[in-house]
Amino acid sequence: MRFIAAIAVFTGIALAWESVDGFAPLPTYKPAERKHWAFQPRGAVKPPALRDPWVRTPVDAFVLDALRKNGLAPAPAADRITLIRRLTQDLHGLPATPQEVAAFVNDRSPKAYENLVERLLASPRYGERWASHWLDVVRFAESDGYEYDTHRPDAWRYRDYVIHSLNSDKPYNEFLKEQLAGDEINPDNETLTVASGFNRLGPLRKNAGNQEVASSRTEVLTEMTNIVGGALLGVTLGCARCHDHKFDPIRQSDYYRMQGYFAQTQAHDIVVATPEERAAWKATVDPLEKEMTDLRRQMRRATEEKKGEILTKLEALDEKMPLPLTAMYAVRNEPKDMTPIHILGRGDYRNKGERVGMRPPGVLLEDGTPEMPADSAKPRTKLAEWVIDPANPLTARVYVNRLWQNHFGQGIVTTPNDFGRMGTKPTHPELLDFLANRFVEGGWKLKPMHRMILLSSAYRQAGRSPLEKVAAEKDPDNKLLWKFNKRRLSAEEIRDAMLAVSGRLNEKAGGRSVMVSIDPELIKDLKRPQYWQPTKDKTEHDRRTIYLIYKRNLILPFMQVFDSPDTLLSCARRDQSTHAPQALELLNGKVSNDLARSLAGRLFEERKTTPSRIDLAWRLTAGRAPSIKETALALKYLGEAPEDREVWKEFALTLFNMNPFLYVN
Amino acid sequence: MAEHIRYNRNRREFLTDCFCGTGSLAFASMMAKAERYNPLAPKPPHFEAKAKSFIFLFQAGGPSHVETFDPKPLLNKLSGQKRPAEFGDVEYQNVNANSRLLGTKRTFARYGQGGIEISDLLPHQQKIADDICVLRGMYGDMVVHSAAQYQLMSGRVIPGFPAMGSWIAYGLGSRADNLPAYVVMPDPHGAPEAGQPMYTNGFLPAVYQPAMFRAGKRPVLNLELPDGVTLERRRKTMELLRAINETNNGEDTEFAARMSAYDTAFKMQTEAPEVFDLASEPQETRDLYGVGKPDTDDYGRRCLLARRLVEKGVRFVCVVAGGGGAETEWDAHSDVEKNHARMASLTDRPTAALVMDLKRRGLLDSTIVLWGGEFGRSPESERGSGRDHHNTGFSMWVAGGGFKGGMAYGATDDIGLKAVQDTMHFRDLHATVLHQMGLSQDQLSYLHQGRRERLTEVHGQIVKAILA
Question: Which value does ipTM take for this structure?
């Protein structure tokens, strides 16, 4: 195994930890345990040699080969109107404008499709859309969760970092290294420090009273460790926190050795507030602090009864404390405060077992590969280098699978965070390896991978097949891609699309997150309602959804009903559920009704007759002209009151609720 | 996540699925199938169920067991002294080595044929003594609110896991087609510490999220027509929407399911408001719950509404008492007497009324009523006359749904510090209530990132001794 050899060299600084008492012995693995497909080195795969005009890019050869072997055939190509809508939603998360549709449909260039893909990939809207896939996986949010749900006012910097990284096509290996170890690479580089905030994205429990320091620290380390397993390696590492993994060859000691890489890691806030902001903050905090200091002094010589009163006063003052000063959320190593890492019985911080150093999961190493001491310098750089080692069998496979999933609706492995035995087997194992090889060989760049997939015939298929009936029997889940999977827009896309077609979208990119006005009853659901301060500039409320605040204890109802993740655990793939509260939200909710009114206004402003308004309405929301039937239905509905804005608002609302708007074919 | 759903699909759903996209069937029959495709369609339990519905009267903040259901004469004797060493140690938020034990000012007496001891703090619940089974040996793992509330609701001390109500909706679907399967009625004073994530569906599909029924003019978000829209206009809008969708692959199952969701939504919108209309209840019933009396009006209304919801087939209703800070929760860090007297004055009458009312309507047998908080309170005093959080031994009670009435199960030690006899962890409680709902804690699972997750995480014990 190549990778095993590479690792043996890499961790060659063997220190004599094994011989020290109190340290856990290194586990061994049976050959059968090492055999699982995902732990094998990637094969040197070549695309099947098919001479078929359908094969446009190498992925087509794999797809077509599998279809043929199963007696299936691909669907015909989708029409241009469908393709531009599909591509624009996929890459930008926004609907194509009528002008864009017309330009593409009338483009005579033989490279029209290629040019479209290039235009979309080059736009900054691409990063705004694809960042949301990554933010789901790393459970990005802008508050701590738990009872105080304290805001992280500068967490947007990480979100912007992700968007910029995607837009500049930063190689994925660098992207990961910066996030795991940016502070170790260069503590003075702002981009890198912000990236290192990745290690702090998880929820954080802060309590009043006794702080249970050890318990909280264990939870922090757990968050840091588990995310590397699911998000980067596609291994359910977290399962081995309390006991050896039940299904995969991951020992409990493996888990804690991974945790060892974070033993020195501590939160590090780098204050970036302006002098004015600092002064204003100080003016609020200083009197509170002074009062609290006085109270604490009184506390020392107070009676038990009196102490209670003081404590109550202290808590009341704490409630008044403003949000922390804006700071970059970074990490740094504090070797002096290193947490000794023990194997914890049942994962409980009180049940300390043997100590461990740091080492990647043993099943990916040669037996006996030594661990490194947890106080080694630059521990996370070492972890990152192992994660992004070209020979790591997991990292590239896991990421290209995410790419595939986000383009086709389901991955080659349909359990993207679990490539272990409980996960599903790849539908196209050779394709997966081929993509991963290309990805690594191409310098871990995403855009060439997008191109290879988007330019394929597989991606350009229609959403329906003439062989539907037979194919649906043989392959009901369309695992072999005998047609394109339709998908419902995500929560973000639905809101963004309503903003775009109503002419309200504020395209401003980046910066501080926006808090919109919400139902006061919702604010009551917060323990600290004072944190919800709607952004004063109302034009900000019309920005893309990725720029709205992601607050753990208040997922906006609009987002929640449309399967937006709760940001507490890594979300590898969003559901596409269908249920009544979605209908209530889109028909009766403030968001859609407000934007429907704007769309109606736009139709009135831009067109003068009812038929031409209907025509524009369809071109905006469905990306095409209305059919004769649709026009007739609309005329009938509007005919009774052709100038009544309220009726037009209801009409616009209907369009927001219709399938051609909510789905991409 | 599609892959996960597949694990739990029953045969009928699987067959429905196989029809997907055949494109050859008439729209009407596809609609019929789409209704069956409804993820909230009632599902058969794993075995015969004793209860069809569940009402959780969540006493947020943690009511004191030694002031309510767990008399401790020795605690009164030792009041003012340090805790004798033989009782051992527990971890606290604020209580420390210098703290002194605090006796209760409450007096206990035996009630009902079962002779359960209940304090004079809860005169109304004394009257339902023969219907409730007091669980005196409860314990959880966490001594801070948020984590303890997560564990009570979802079996985990961290947020992100599905709440009981979501699990039950997922396991059994809904019995009502014009109401949600899972309803939470928060306390208008504000949120308990764990906030929104404690009630939610976690990684289960969004269809299992709770409907929040809030106080105020608009109890349910988006249930009312927007301003300026008449029902007549909305009907026409719905007709237009249906007609447009039918011209666009209307025979597609997912699209049909979406249309069916709109029908359900419309039904909810037109029929659900009726359930909120408490004026249709007889005066005697409203008086029973204390509706119209300043103290009990709010909680009384919510308890009465809970009964009405259960009557209409809602699976799980969580009525929250407490929120918005220590003073408006059972979180009696200072002056437990004052705090608990206030909380009891708001909740005691409606609580008892709910059990009585369910019973006389013949609904108690098929409805589990659970009362309790995320923990109890410390035998030691905090801030003079208050009590700290206390997770190592406290009381809850359960009634109806095939549970025995008129009994007390489990015990804490002589000062109420630790559960020592017939102890029940939250996971045992979860396993037992699921069992009564006809659900096996192991079968009711969902594959999430490599683990077959379940409400009880580690296997809970079904406590047979408290089952009728």
Answer: 0.91
